[in-house]
Design brief:
Number of helices: 14
Number of strands: 21
Low-confidence stretches: 1-35
Shape: globular
Structural class: alpha/beta
Helix content: 25-40%
CATH class of the largest domain: Alpha Beta
Largest sheet: 9 strands, mixed
Strand content: 15-25%
Bound molecules: zinc ion
Radius of gyration: 22 Å
Mean pLDDT: 91
Number of domains: 2
CATH superfamily of the largest domain: Alkaline Phosphatase, subunit A
Distance between the termini: 69 Å
CATH architecture of the largest domain: 3-Layer(aba) Sandwich
C-alpha cells in the first residue's frame, strides 16, 4: 500500500476514534418514527421516569436529603421497591420498562448465553446493548411512540436499541461520564420545546449511588451521604426547573436494586469451580448460570458441583430459590450456583487485586429479594398522585401498568405486573 493511502486510512481511523470517544448526541428529528398526532399531544399528561441506580430503600430516612424528602412529603412513597431476581441492573431496569419478569423479557443477567443467537450477551458490549433483538416485551417508550406520543431518554436500559424498530424520539448513547447537570439541563430543554415537539414521556438515569455503594459498601456513611447530597442537589435543580415550566409533569423515581456489604475474603473464586469439559460457566456474581455441555447429563454436572459446595449451593434451575416463578427461559442454563448471603463469585485474579489494594469491604447486589438490603425505592409526585400517601413494599413489575395508566395507554394483557396492586397511589379522578 502506498504511504499516502496509509496516511489517509490512519487519519480516518483517528477521526472515527475521536468521534466515538466524544459523547455524540444522537437525536432523531421529532416525529421521525411515529407521526406526532396533535390531538394526542394536547391530551396526554407528562411523565418523567427517573432511575437512581443502586439507591437502597433506607437512604432517604437515614440521611434526609432535602429535595428528595420534600418531594416524598407532598407525594407518594412505597415502603420499598422489591426488585426481580436476580437483583441486577439490566434485568431490573428492563423489568421496570416492560412489566415483565426477566424470564420473559429475556435480559436475565448483565451477562448471559443466548441459545437462539449462539452468542454471549454482555451489557458492556455496546453493540449488544444496542441490538434490539435481545430485548423482549414492549417497553413503555415503544408503546407511547406507537400511540403518537413524543418520547425522550437521557439513558435507560433499552433506549439505545431499536426495539420493534422503535427508539425514543430523542435519545443518547449510554455514557456514564456525562455530568448530571447536563442530563438535568437537557431534560428541562426538552420540556421547554414547543408543544408539538415536546416529549410527554422522558426517562432519566443517574448511576451515582450504585457507584459509591459498590466502591465503599453501605457502612461508609460519609461517602454515601456526600454522593447522596450531590445527587439530591441535581434533583432539586430538576424539580425547580420543572415547576417553572408550569407543565403538569408526573415524576416517578425508582431504583433497580439496593446494596449489601461484602468482605473481600468472602469472594468465592469461580476459577476453582469451572470445568470446561463438563459445562459452560456464566458468572453474574450472586448467581452463576451453568450450561452442561452437549451429551453431558445434568445429574453428572450436579454431582460434580455438589462436591465443591462451600458457602454456595448448586440447584437445578427450576428449584433455585429467589425466583418468583418457575423459570422456563432456556438461557438460564440447567443449573444455578447461588452463594450464601454475604458471599459472592468473582475470579481469583480480581480477589487478589482487591486484597493487594487493601480493600476489605465493598458493596454488592444480585441476591434474592427476600434480603431487604436488595430493596430499592419507589417515590412519585405530580398531578396524578395522592399527596403524602404511603403504600407497602411493591414489586417493580407493577410500575409499567401504572405508567400506561398515567399516559392513557392500553395495558398489554400478557405482562406480569398488575395495575390493581399499585392503583391506590393515584388520585381517584385520574
Ligand atoms: Zn451495581
Amino acid at each position: 500500500m502506498k504511504q499516502g493511502t496509509l496516511l489517509l486510512i490512519s487519519m480516518f481511523i483517528i477521526v472515527m476514534m475521536l468521534l466515538n470517544s466524544c459523547n455524540i448526541k444522537i437525536i432523531n428529528s421529532p416525529g421521525s418514527i411515529t407521526k406526532t398526532d396533535v390531538s394526542v399531544v394536547e391530551k396526554t399528561p407528562y411523565l418523567l421516569l427517573i432511575s437512581l441506580d443502586g439507591f437502597r430503600w433506607d437512604y432517604v430516612e437515614k440521611y434526609n436529603p432535602p429535595n428528595l424528602s420534600s418531594f416524598i412529603k407532598s407525594g407518594v412513597k412505597s415502603a420499598s421497591l422489591i426488585p426481580s431476581f436476580p437483583t441486577k441492573t439490566f434485568p431490573n431496569h428492563y423489568t421496570i420498562a416492560t412489566g415483565l419478569y426477566p424470564d420473559k423479557h429475556g435480559l436475565i443477567g448483565n451477562i448471559f448465553y443466548d441459545y437462539n443467537k449462539e452468542t454471549l450477551f454482555n451489557k458492556r458490549n455496546p453493540k449488544m446493548a444496542e441490538d434490539g433483538s435481545f430485548y423482549g416485551g414492549s417497553p413503555i417508550w415503544v408503546e407511547a411512540n406507537k400511540a403518537g406520543i413524543v418520547t425522550a431518554s437521557y439513558f435507560f436500559v433499552g433506549t439505545e436499541a431499536k426495539i420493534q424498530g422503535i427508539r425514543p424520539t430523542y435519545y443518547y448513547k449510554f455514557d456514564n461520564n456525562v455530568e448530571n447537570e447536563q442530563r438535568v439541563n437537557q431534560t428541562l430543554d426538552w420540556l421547554n420545546l414547543e408543544e408539538t415537539n415536546r416529549p410527554h414521556l422522558i426517562t432519566l438515569y443517574f448511576g451515582d449511588m450504585d457507584k459509591v455503594g459498590h466502591t465503599y459498601g453501605t457502612r461508609d456513611e460519609d461517602k454515601l451521604k456526600t454522593a447522596l447530597f450531590e445527587l439530591d442537589k441535581n434533583l432539586g435543580d430538576l424539580f425547580k426547573g420543572i415547576s417553572e415550566t408550569n407543565l403538569p409533569v408526573n415524576i416517578i423515581i425508582v431504583s433497580d436494586h439496593g446494596m449489601g456489604d461484602q468482605s473481600t475474603h468472602n469472594i468465592i473464586p469461580i476459577d476453582s469451580i469451572e470445568n470446561d469439559d463438563l459445562f459452560m460457566t456464566i458468572e453474574n456474581g450472586t448467581i452463576v448460570n451453568i450450561h452442561p455441555k452437549k451429551a453431558i447429563e445434568i445429574d453428572t454436572v450436579l454431582q460434580y458441583l455438589r462436591l465443591k459446595e462451600h458457602n454456595f449451593k448448586a440447584y437445578r434451575t427450576e428449584n433455585t430459590p429467589g425466583f418468583e416463578y418457575i423459570p422456563t427461559n432456556k438461557n438460564w442454563g440447567a443449573i444455578q450456583l447461588i452463594p450464601d448471603f454475604g458471599y459472592h463469585f468473582w475470579n481469583q485474579r480480581r480477589k487478589d487485586a482487591l486484597i493487594e489494594d487493601g480493600v476489605t469491604t465493598f458493596g454488592v447486589h444480585g441476591y434474592d429479594s427476600k434480603y431487604k438490603e436488595m430493596h430499592g425505592i419507589f417515590y412519585a409526585n405530580g398531578p396524578a398522585f395522592k399527596d403524602g400517601y404511603e403504600i407497602h413494599s411493591i414489586k417493580n413489575i407493577h410500575i409499567y401498568p401504572l405508567m400506561c395508566e398515567i399516559l392513557g395507554l392500553k395495558i398489554p394483557e400478557s405482562i406480569d405486573g398488575d395495575i390493581k396492586e399499585i392503583k391506590s397511589i393515584l388520585k381517584e379522578n385520574n
